[in-house]
Amino acid sequence: MTQRILVLIAILCSFFNVFAQQQQQQRNLTRKLDSLLTDTATVPFNGVVVIGNESRSFYRRFGGFSNVEQQQPFTIESEFMIGSISKQITSVIVLQEMEKGHLHLNDPIHKYLPALSEKWADTVTIHHLLSHTHGITALDKPLAFRPGSHFAYGFISFDLLSQIVEKTSGQSFPDLCAALFKQCGMQYSFDPRKKEYIHLVPGYTAGQDGRLKREDGVLEMYSNVATAAGGLISSADDLVKWNNCLHGGKLLSDKSYRLMISPKENAYREHQTLGTVDYGYGITIPRQTVKPELAVTGVVPGFISMDLYFPETKTSVIVLENIARNMTDLKQSFYYHDQILNIVKAAQ
User: Fold this and answer.
1) According to the 3-state scheme, what is the secondary structure of the chain?
2) 46-85+173-347 to CATH, choices 3.40.630.120, 3.30.365.10, 3.40.710.10, 3.40.50.720
3) Domain spans of the chain?
4) Which of 28, 141, 208, 283 has its CA 20 to 30 A from that of 241?
């Protein structure tokens, strides 16, 4: 009996030591991030940072104003345009349609979009659209390269994907998004065409002189032609929920998930902040990492976004800004995202 008690005490002591170490690591992380985000020597951070895992969000920071003119603070409800993070959501919808047997990734897109008149519609497949290896530059022009042979990042392929899933599902793309967001418990995420957002913050672009231009027309512009590629709306906490659902196996089968996050042939490029990255479907896999990372960034006029996930620790890092600076040098636009990422990496 005495020996069992001693073993139990040893186990409890070990548990509390690990817990204490984790708490100290989180305190150190908080201190470093707070120091970065309140640094008055640099251009102030203006946005929201949330870091969390499958059980809780353990860091949340609001900086600057959601509405600069009225000097309104950010809240947990603040909604942003998330740019190319939208592509990840569209990719999941496509893969869910595949799992239902409604489409096949190697099918030519003409099968689903018969109105396309160019001959390449019989050659380009859904896989090519998802991996940016399609070669399409415009719907009425020849391909820039043979499908599958090169990579060219863009928006047009994801607009076509949204049309395909509308055909295969019999539902509108906004409704497909709404069902997905409901499944993940995402209360502040929308396709803007549903007009249900009420906490969307305005976006601003800073000129070289530092003056801010309010980008009032960007939502309408992306709602018309590029919603599936870059026009969806979400909040920082909702994107943590999204990551937990996607990477936690709640949205796709393991086979489909592995297909989504695996690098595709000839699908890679130099990313402005992540270095050399391989592309899966709606997700990037940075090469120069000590521990595995799954990432996606977004840029639209007035908004700079990052959603990064560490599979080993099931940790999400979400950074959403509504002031876009140095748009001619995206490395500088992602200054805070890059610095936050470096701090979090060091703590992993």
Assistant:
1) CHHHHHHHHHHHHHHHHHHHHHHHHHHHHHHHHHHHHCCCCCCCCCEEEEEECCCCEEEEEEECCCECCCCECCCCCCEEECCCHHHHHHHHHHHHHHHCCCCCCCCEHHHCCCCCCCHHHHCCEHHHHHHCCCCCCCCCCCCCCCCCCCCCCCCHHHHHHHHHHHHHHCCCHHHHHHHHHHHCCCCCCECHHHCCCCCECCCEEECCCCCEEECCCHHHHHHHHCHHHHHCEECHHHHHHHHHHHHCCCCCCHHHHHHHHCCCCCCEEEECCCEEEEECCCCEEECCCCCCCEEEEEEECCEEEEEEEECCCCEEEEEEECEECCCCCHHHHCHHHHHHHHHHHHHC
2) 3.40.710.10
3) 46-85+173-347
4) 28
